[in-house]
Amino acid sequence: MHLFEYAVLRVVPRVEREEFLNVGVILYCSAQGFLQTRCHLPEARLQALAGPGLDLDDLRARLQAFERICGGRREGGPIGQLAVASRFRWLTAMRSTIVQTSPVHPGLCEDAAAMLDRLYEQLVV
């Protein structure tokens, strides 16, 4: 069994109202060198929560940035070139933008990719 850490990606359309919708999960497992995110934008639910001013294209771009940073290399920009643990810490840092993360939670798993799928199904879909 390997230690892993994860956080839920949330869309918070109006920070002052503190309402959010879970749209993804990011999972890090040091022992497996694993850092990935899985996201889904339920457009109708988001628009009902946020109202007509929500820019879905901008939101998609922000979530794609999470994916690029997880993947590392040049595509992830300067943050994507950091070590895996540093990228996870940067992605899960507290922020007050439209895309936020939950607190980080630990767990144990044998297969990080399978655990990411399981958490995604439980917390997002």
UniProtKB/TrEMBL annotation:
It comes from the Bacteria. InterPro entries: DUF3037 (IPR021398). This is DUF3037 domain-containing protein.
